[in-house]
Amino acid sequence: MSLELRDIHKHFGPVRANDGISITVETGTLHGLLGENGAGKSTLMKVLSGFHSADSGEIILDGKTIKLASPVDAIAAGIGMLHQDPLVFLPFSVIDNFVLGSPGERRLDRAAATRELNELSERYGFNLDPETPARLLTVGERQQLEILRLLWLGARVLILDEPTTGISADQRAKLFVTLKALAKEGMSVIFVSHKLEEVADLCERVTVMTRGKVVGEAELPVPPEQLVEMMFGQAIEIRDRDQVSLGSSHLALDSIRTATGLLSEEPISLEVQAGEVIGIAGMEGSGQDTFLRICCGMRAPKEGRVAVGGQDMTGKHYRDYLAADVKYLPAGRLEEGLIEGLTITEHFVLAGEDRSFFVDWGAARKRAVEQVEHYTIKGTEASTAESLSGGNQQRVLLAMLPAELTVLLMEHPTRGLDIESADWVWEQLLARREQGTSILFASADLDELLRYSDRILVFFSGRVIGELDASATNVDEIGLLIGGRRSGTEGVAS
Ligand SMILES: Nc1ncnc2c1ncn2[C@@H]1O[C@H](COP(=O)(O)OP(=O)(O)OP(=O)(O)O)[C@@H](O)[C@H]1O
Ligand SMILES: [Mg+2]
């Protein structure tokens, strides 16, 4: 199934997200689409999968121009897309999600659908229980579900929009094996990313986009510097951080433990000082999120004590933690951090300290305009949260942080960001740190953990299996711990 996009244009107001894009994807190949945040990758893929209609341009499939008025048209033509945030209906079970949106008769035969789901699941080495509620799935498993659903619906062109953000290294390896197998079977796979290594590992061809245009194409492999130059026009240099002397205790956890589930087995104690950066490693769902939620008062431990700045906070409400300048930035930017439909100005008003009943919208807009400029957010004060690209959503979240911060807790601070934006985010975080803010961040990116942490806590199966001095460890040691092996011993921790 050969696929050609010819001269695609798509604008949003003044933003030319796609400005005359032409790409050809050969049948049975893994085609990478690389580009900085806001380059227009998701927009192009949404055009190709029927979510957006292009202003102009053609989509040619097997020599015929096709019109896609909706995702249903696209999937009927064999084009399926896995979104940046997998569109899974959380309250429903795996099998209900699987059959949702499928043609009438198939939807009704639940038993047959369950059999087919199990078959597909086995074929690709996934482990999805049909009756599990979707909200219990990790991001990686939601993706697996979505891929199987698209295959079941007959996709022959599979689009994956940044599928590796938010999944574990293991899940990524499994995904890549699956994608390579699918390409062998004749599937055309379009893999959207801004991670050079991943595109280099997986793809046979790559198209590079910048600011709505194609700026380069290459058969892989090519030297990574060449791709970086295509993306940014120059090589990016990441600076080393300055040494910061640590101050008084900002956060102290004493033997905390939850009643059931993760973190219920072994108590955790940790003391974090002013200006300290603690990296949190671990397979997704190893207890990191529970841990971070306890640190910010969103979840109460069953046992143990929590103190912020020397003050006992045990049993206090999330709002009391906020008042103590403890702030948490979640990973699901659109689910938990930002509110769909609200503009940047409205977000700043909501996040602001001003609690008076009347909002001075004129002043609020002016402040928002300044922030948009200061944080170089690609958008305007009137842009809605969902209209921003991932990198720009993260910028808004950072811009919303209060001036005073004792402890900042983050999940995947640079997930989904290109090198330039990731570097920018850390510049902001390190500036905070110099002012004494303690930072705890969970990340799946081992290089990021090593580069920015003072100490690294590794979670495995609901407990801290290792605490490492970041300057004295390496990727291999962390990797082993993440997999449950304590250093110096052979066996896997039970
Ligand atoms: N629905 C929308 N309404 C308004 N503007 C939009 C909309 N969707 C995208 N844009 C704008 O179009 C541009 C391209 O965005 P797009 O999401 O396609 O980028 P991207 O390459 O996928 O970036 P990222 O790597 O951050 O996901 C951005 O400036 C974005 O703000
Ligand atoms: Mg995108």
3D structure, described in words:
The protein has helices spanning 41-48, 71-76, 94-99, 104-108, 110-123, 139-152, 169-184, 196-202, 224-232, 288-295, 318-323, 333-337, 344-351, 361-374, 390-399, 419-434, 446-452, 475-482; strands at 3-12, 15-25, 30-35, 56-61, 64-66, 79-82, 157-161, 188-193, 205-210, 213-219, 249-257, 268-273, 277-282, 303-308, 311-312, 326-329, 407-411, 438-442, 455-460, 463-469. With 494 residues, it is an alpha/beta fold. It folds into 3 domains: 3-232, Rossmann fold (3-Layer(aba) Sandwich); 237-325 and 404-494, Rossmann fold; 337-401, no CATH class. It has a 6-stranded mixed β-sheet with strand order 6-7-8-3-9-10, with helices on both faces. It has a 6-stranded mixed β-sheet with strand order 16-17-18-13-19-20, with helices on both faces. Helix 5 crosses helix 6. The longest helix is centred in the middle third of the chain and has 16 residues, at 169-184. It is globular, with a radius of gyration of 23 Å.
